[in-house]
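On clarity, I found the account of how folds are encoded harder to follow than it need be. Since the whole study asks how a given chain folds, the encoding of that fold should be made plain. For illustration, here is how one protein appears when written out as sequence plus structure tokens:
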Amino acid sequence: MFLDNMESIRDLNLIDEINDSSNLKLIKYRLKLLFWNKNPEVTEEDNEKEFSEFSREYQNLLGVCSTGEIDIFSEKIDYLTLILAANSKNHNIYIKKLAEEYAEKIPLEEGDSRVNIWDFINVAANSRNNDLHLERMILEGDIVLLNKKRQSIYNFEKIRLKIKDYVDKVRNAQMPTEIKDLLVKKSEEAFSEIKIDYNIESGIRVSTKEYSGEIPEEWHPPCMREILNDILSGGSPSHYARRSFVVYRFVSQFDPNLRPIEEGTITNRSAQDIATEEQIERFLDQIINIFKSVGDFDVEKTKYYISHNIGYKVANHITHCEYCKNWRDDGGKGLGYYCRPDSTCSRKDIIHPLDYLCHNINRHVKKSE
């Protein structure tokens, strides 16, 4: 994998490489291959033929543009593509697609694959994938045995986490504003011809008595941003994390001041107490679209569980998002992994993820006034 060969890009001038028109053309080709969309009007065989022809065209273009070893040049294009993708709003789906591409190249063993227990734990603990819980595995001493299905999941998660870590480093790198602006501009150009069938904007439109308007991503608490990023990049958060995310997202749109406990008693509100049926159905479509990225996605099951969590038709009350204390303590619910407090989280009046959002809404309203 190209991320294992840092030597191939160590001495490159990033700005010159990004501004090179030939490189940008190749990056666009690379992204088209990664986000290849099948034509539903032709046969599977014709689709494969068209993809193969485009892949050969890309390889030929690599050969024409390369001044040295084509494999090293190809790795350079992969690095540049990752850097631009990391600076794009499509960075999460890029992680998922690239991990799928590399995972498909790893042959699955006919019998059980043998993985060192510490290597397995390192991947499983960071992936949050329910199918990789150690208690579900078969062990032989310090070896974990994986059947074909779990081999596939393990290979994908191992690669996904590696790519995600690198993308996060690029996104969080401190750099001059003019360089950051250049990368964002070039990333928009690189993705301009790419059709992404479920591009999700992380913001939420809120309409309440206190505030009406778009909510920027940074107004949401870190835990909710982390879960969303994990889902969109192909991760599989725990049941509790998914539930809290869904209910937070629903309540934040229609009544950000609603809490699980009000005046010392549990709040029993249904979805239709705070939103119309039309609004709820539109919300269900939005969330189902988000969860398409999850490996174990099933439309009907997803719709059922979301409806149950928000108290719509299959249940008569909202299940509610967990309080911050439960995120910190975790208790085996898989919440602690996403709890990454910032300075706002440390405020004494922030005891629930919705408190974080309300704090930012109130700050914005005061600033506007």
User: Anything to note?
Assistant: Residues 204-368 form one domain. Strands lie at 113-116, 138-140, 143-146, 204-207, 212-215, 261-262, 265-266. The longest strand covers residues 113-116. The mean pLDDT is 89.
